[in-house]
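A quick aside before the break. I want you to see a complete sequence-to-structure record at least once, exactly as it would be stored in a machine-readable document. Don't worry about memorizing anything.
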Amino acid sequence: MALRRWAGEFAGGTVATAMATLNARHPWSHNDHFHSWILANLPEHRRAALDVGCGRGELVAALAPRFEAVHGTDRDEEMLRRAGARCAGLPNVTIDGRSWTDATGPYDLITMVAVLHHLDVADALAEVRRLLAPGGRFLAVGLAPPRSAADHLWDLASAVTNPVIGYVKHPWPSTDDPVRPFPVQDPTVPLDDLREIVLDVMPGAVIRRRLGFRHTIAWTKPS
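That is the input. The structure line, written in tokens, reads:
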């Protein structure tokens, strides 16, 4: 966080202001950006999938042609409304606001995009492990506060590349009204601590830092 504060105050804040203006002109969704990573890492068996915290339903809709059944859950009523509208024509999709931990499974895929830091990590991972079918896969995109030197360097790299990625994805200045944001909660578990928790519950999981202030977690339940 110290590096972020320094960047915000550098040159009287003019650099940070200019970066914020540029980012606003060429916006991109850091979460949606990783949907392609999820789709490229799907499990072999594709019967049922669960997207926890499905938001507006973009990932659920993308998974629908690839699975026999897809279930999306979210606690936010507006997100549920948007997801329901987006997936209304998909007969193998269900969207509801029930607790995902009440599901019985088994699922061949469970996804969480910017969700795990809202939950008790160890408990949530244990539930994921319970709900996954043997050979099923857990794919998560998460956030963690920077603590180590490596964390801060990746933060800096994300800040520098953010407008570049935005320009590539959205080269023309945006004239759209801002989309209602997802419910936000600041992450509290640094990546090194998160890695220990994940590997304790899911031995062999692969955790990687990513640009866009994100990291990914991939784990396949042993058969």
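Two observations worth writing down. Residues 78 and 216 are 26 Å apart (CA to CA). The chain has eight helices and seven strands. We'll return to this after the break.
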